[in-house]
Design goal:
26 helices; disordered N terminus; 3 domains; binds magnesium ion; 9-stranded mixed beta sheet; Rossmann fold; alpha/beta; 23 strands; binds adenosine-5'-diphosphate; 17% strand; 7-stranded mixed beta sheet; 684 residues
Amino acid sequence: MNDFKPKFVKPADTSSFLEKNEPFTIDTSNFIYNRHISQSIQTQRQRLPIFNNRNHILYLLEKYQTLVLVGETGCGKSTQIPQYMIEAEWPGQIGICEPRRVAAISLASRVADETGTLVQQEYVGYAVRFDACYNKPKIKYMTEGILLREMMSDPLLKNYSAIMLDEAHERSLYTDILMGLMKKILKRRKELRLIIASATLDAKEFQEFFNNNPTSDNKKDTAVILSVEGRQFPVDIFYVVEPVPCYVQASVDAVLKINSSKEHGDILVFLTGQEEVDRAVRLLNEHANLIEETQKTGKLMVVPMYGSLPYHEQLKVFKPPPNGYRKVVVATNVAETSVTIPGIVHVIDCGFVKMKWYNTETHTDSLVVLPISKSSANQRAGRAGRVRSGKVYRLYTEEYFSKLAENTPPEMVRSNLTYAVLQIKALGIDNILKFNFPSPPPVQNLKSALEILYALDAIDIQGELTRPLGFHMAEFSLDPLYTKVLLSSGEFECSEEILTIIAMLQIETVFTKPSSGNFSIKARVQKRLFEVEEGDLITYLNVYNGFIESEMSQGFCHKNFLSYKSLKRVVEIRRRLEKMLINYDVPIISCIRSTETIRKCLVKGLFPNAAYLHRSGVYKTIRGDTELFVHPDSVLYTIPQPQWLLFCEVVHTTKLYMRDLTVIESDWLLEFAPHFYHKTTFYE
Ligand code: ADP
Ligand code: MG
């Protein structure tokens, strides 16, 4: 393995990066690592770069309807602005929309800590999918989807006096949709304020979008930009000399190399997804255990960080390591801008990111691992310079960096819009093609969304939402295909089973993947006990039922290489989905293991995701003729391949791989989705 070790060089000229981040002039020589614990929280708040702008921000919010606020990640936008407003006795609620659930929760708990209050009480709270707050906190952190759903019952957002759209630079699908909708609401409610918080400098575009009085009219602007001077220490950049064959292994090696160099400071590693993060954490923990047994110094505390990690696990990354330990956070892109982890001095950047990309042929978003953009690479590097000068180790060559795109395209132009279109329609906006988006999506994607919604009976031939189905589907916080399956499960008399399956699909995976050869064989053998030839979804059902029969025992999970925490979360999600179904008067019935009933019910909603085995031996989509492959993790990978199947997700690596499969029969497609699949489409 030795020759896999990355060799880093520092390029001769890093000025382009350093110029942007002028060193901050305080004496860092006596800067104590982890000093933040001993500082009182109020002093900490006053030390944030944004504090110098406190009064100016409050002034601008009085004068202008929209404030576009630009400031480095960590300068205090998300946690401080709402507090300043409340301190200035701003009336009503302040809502802060985060693209990620993890950010909403961790910000609320941070503000609670800063103010000595409790989360989910009257001062600060959060609302995320499957976990709402039931009172009306003055400061409410939420995911964007929550605000969108609130608009359905309160179209002018009367409860709020200000809304902040956070992380606007990420250009998530829902940030863009909310921008379009907020533009309309602001015209109707002159007293409402909007704050667009962004970590990068492309603010002009936002300001122009929200300025209701373009300068040529000689009237006062309604939107203004404020840039907060960042406090960023210089960051040295290192590149690998040769491309690395496996960036997970290379990142592990780089961590160990930094650790053995005895340089102080915590390490943040960027990988692309949960599986990679878990793998790196396992490898690092093996080394950490060895160090623990044999050495007095250089001990490591390794923590993972990704969006689907349970809440209390996520909080671990913010805790300082015990004395004598160095913290290593292995994260997905969530750590790029949405959460700020204290103490980071070294960053290891794999150079890739997992991104959604809509494929109009398969009608699904594929998760694609793609090279990051230059601006992402610089954001990641910036994470190293927050407490003192830092270092970033890029696991790619300098030449590779020079070829990266400048920016990542907004999610709006590369996503499945089915659910978004459904929700916008539920807000009474009929002509989607004319809606004012900050970056209009391709018409092709919009049309494809409308077609699917029509096939699901969510809209009628005029494009209007159907009652009650279309409206119910818009209110549900799930992909409309899954909602359709859930809402149909009463008729099929298998809602107990469908609830379990849909809940299981909300978690990336419940199977743990041991890295050592012996255990990974054992894990595979154990998994076989649950596997059935009907596919992965029925297998998940077996896993869940086994867990419940074991009375949710940790021993059962341990023996079967299942994640206890993930399964507990599935139980919780299932409970919430069940409550929702009861609200919609769907009877909760079990079909007592008739998998045919369950599979038919799945076809009722998932039919756009059907594939068949072509005579050439590869799967193809029925309408688009796109080639698809069975994912190696699927239970169908090793058994004779069925003629027809449904998939839930497509992952794009070297090929398009279908995940979460269910075996079906072609007749069912004709029976339950006749308008989507005509006989002619089948046999042409
Ligand atoms: P921004 O939104 O500008 O990126 P934040 O308001 O999220 O900045 O964070 C401001 C500061 O608060 C950070 O620099 C960090 O020091 C601290 N902070 C934020 N969240 C936490 C947390 N959960 N635990 C400890 N410190 C935090
Ligand atoms: Mg923030």
